[in-house]
From TrEMBL:
This is NADPH2:quinone reductase. The gene is qor_3. Its EC number is 1.6.5.5. It is an enzyme of class 1 (oxidoreductase). Residues 18-322 form the Enoyl reductase (ER) domain.
């Protein structure tokens, strides 16, 4: 079936909030594009932690039921262009999807589907937290939490490209720490909160880190803050533990001249120069070989529940995608 025909398609639908078991394969009408939108034949859909929160009903604002998850897709348009699209309305876990033209970019032929999807939410997030939120400067030390995950894998590579002097990867298992070292990290540490700040200081000659990228929340947030050197910056951009972020003592920030910044991609991509331009830079790095990523797991569309279960269980590394 071509994207110009009207019919039905296979899609993953969520009719009630819950865990991975709430993801159900359904036969739905083809979506119809409106003004400023495109209909694409989906060849790959990205899976993110935020998707698991949307399915659970904990993401704000919560989507209206029923809905098709998936905010990032790669595929072909009716006129044959291969595009990558970020669509916060969802609909990506499907054979066809409607996307907003304003957050759609053509993909170079040399960039595969999995790489393109990794460079969308995760790549843009890593780019913005390092350059914008953290204001990483040449020669600084950066600690990257969840360094074997989607954002972390890219942040390890980009931190070096952006001039970091020492790249410290934090991950939960020896296998993930070994992967981070292969990606280019100088040091790989256990990410367990207990003793984390001491391990960072040991790796930095007692000084601590200039920048900590933190996406777990809970005790990991506090440990990352403790690991900062004077004048250090912590950027929080996720809550994978779903434990929340502990209160921050303003006196502690003042005493050590620390800064805490939050990052959320959704409002950023609407700003001029913050969507296509960073993606164009990331594509160029991928094309010339300076940004290479090991493939993450790919699941058939009807195993979306398994993809979510593995992601929540921290059994994945790299970019998780669905293949309709």
């Amino acid at each position: 079936m071509t994207v110009t025909e009207v019919g039905t398609m296979r899609a993953i639908q969520v009719s009630r909030f819950g865990g991975p078991e709430a993801l159900k394969l359904a036969e739905l009408p083809d979506p119809v594009p409106g003004p400023g939108q495109l209909l694409i034949q989906v060849t790959g859909a990205g899976v993110n932690f935020a998707d698991t929160s949307r399915v659970a009903g904990s993401y704000q604002p919560a989507p209206a039921l029923p809905f098709v998850p998936g905010t990032e897709v790669v595929g072909t348009t009716a006129d044959g262009r291969r595009v990558l699209a970020l669509n916060f309305a969802g609909g990506g876990y499907a054979e066809r999807a409607v996307v907003d033209a304003a957050t759609t970019v053509e993909v170079p032929a040399q960039v595969g589907d999995a790489t393109a999807l990794a460079l969308l939410v995760q790549g843009l997030t890593a780019w913005h937290v390092l350059r914008g939120s953290a204001r990483l400067r040449d020669g600084e030390t950066v600690v990257i939490g969840a360094a074997a995950g989607g954002v972390g894998s890219l942040a390890v590579r980009l931190a070096r490209h952006f001039g970091a002097g020492l790249v410290i990867a934090a991950a939960s298992t020896p296998e993930k720490r070994e992967k981070a070292l292969r990606l280019g990290a100088d040091v790989a540490l256990d990410s367990a909160p207990d003793g984390f700040a001491e391990r960072v200081r040991d790796a930095t000659g007692g000084r601590g880190a200039d920048v900590v990228l933190e996406s777990t929340g809970g005790a990991a947030f506090t440990a990352g803050l403790d690991a900062l050197a004077p004048f250090g910056r912590l950027v929080t951009f996720g809550n994978a533990s779903r434990q929340g972020r502990p209160p921050v003592d303003p006196g502690e920030l003042s005493d050590r001249n620390l800064a805490v910044a939050g990052f959320w991609l959704r409002p950023v991509v609407t700003l001029p120069g913050h969507f296509r331009e960073p993606l164009t830079e990331l594509f160029a790095l991928a094309v010339d070989g300076r940004l290479t990523l090991p493939p993450g797991p790919a699941y058939p569309l009807d195993e979306a529940h398994r993809a979510h279960r593995d992601l929540i269980g921290r059994r994945t590394t790299g970019k998780v995608i669905l293949r309709p």
